[in-house]
């Protein structure tokens, strides 16, 4: 995930938190649910990218080990 993609995911999370808070203040269940959904989407994007980065790092480490042989 590029820095731009991470920034977008962070923005989506903040947007979701704001919408959820607004829903809590107004008692609007739809805004509460949509806000939570946006936060979950952001968390899923970050988790997926973290997993991809971990696999890439592991592959890079394996390659370096093989290159040493």
From the N-terminal CA to the C-terminal CA, the straight-line distance is: 32 Å
The secondary-structure class comes to mainly alpha
Topology as H/E string?
HH
Strand content: under 5%
Strand segment tally: 0
- Helix amount: over 70%
Overall shape: it is: rod-shaped
Let me know the average pLDDT: 92
Number of helices: 2
Rg over CA atoms: 18 Å
Main β-sheet description: none
Textual characterization of the structure:
The structure is a single chain. The chain is built from two helices and no strands. By secondary structure, it is mainly α. α1 runs antiparallel to α2. The chain is rod-shaped and about 65 Å long. The model has no long low-confidence stretch (mean pLDDT 92).
Quick tags:
single chain; 69 residues; mainly alpha; 2 helices; rod-shaped
Task: Give the SSE layout.
Elements lengths: L2 H24 L2 H40 L1
Helix pairs in contact: 1-2
Kindly summarize this structure in a few lines.
With 69 residues, this protein is mostly helical. The protein has helices at 3-26, 29-68.
